Amino acid sequence: MEREFKIKGLMMDPITNSPIVILQDVERNTLLPIWVGIFEANAIALQIERVDTPRPMTHDLLKNILNHFDAEVERIVVTELKDNTFYAVIHLQRGGQPMLIDSRPSDAIALALRTDAPIFVTEAVIQNSRNISLDKEKLDPEEVREWLENLNPEDLGKYKM
């Protein structure tokens, strides 16, 4: 079972100073934070802000290659959460043939933004994400969940959707 999510915003984790993509369930208030690398966050931010770069960035190049081969991104799905690492699959369609491509969620999200493809998350990931271990700082996951639930739109910085 999968649920559709949209990007709620992009922000910096105030504790680890790492970028976080905040996904929100389109039908519920469920928030899913996914910590990403700085370069991936930049690729996502560029697309959120609709910034045109003078040369194609990596995800733009991937979109151009897919277009050249008449392949379409149908959707991306965040499929697993193992050892605090999220996994995703890009669902492609080419010539009536479905293709599944393993991906990091950050790359899949950056590509989904560029191709207007929907973002889905499995129920298993949603359930498992409630138990994310934040042992970097020995934080209580419940405190982090409360922090995320109580975010104000201003907390999401200039990249809110």
DSSP strand content = 25-35%
Classify the helix fraction into a percent range. Answer: 25-40%
What is the count of distinct domains? 1
Kindly report how far apart the N and C termini lie.
26 Å
Strand order of the largest sheet: 3-2-1-7-4-5-6
Protein model, in words:
The structure is a single chain. The protein has 161 residues and is an alpha+beta fold. The chain has a single domain (2-159), classed as Bifunctional nuclease domain (Roll). The chain is 30% helix and 35% strand. It is built from 5 helices and 7 strands; from the N terminus they run E-E-E-H-H-E-E-E-H-E-H-H. It has helices at 38-48, 58-68, 105-115, 123-129, 141-149, and strands spanning 2-12, 19-25, 31-35, 71-82, 85-94, 97-103, 119-122. Strands 3-2-1-7-4-5-6 form a 7-stranded mixed β-sheet. A hairpin with a 6-residue loop joins strand 1 (2-12) and strand 2 (19-25). Helix 1 runs parallel beside helix 3 and helix 2 (58-68) packs across helix 3. The longest helix is centred in the N-terminal third of the chain and has 11 residues, at 38-48. It is globular. The protein starts with a strand and ends in a 12-residue tail after the last helix. Mean pLDDT is 85; it is low at 131-139 and 156-161.
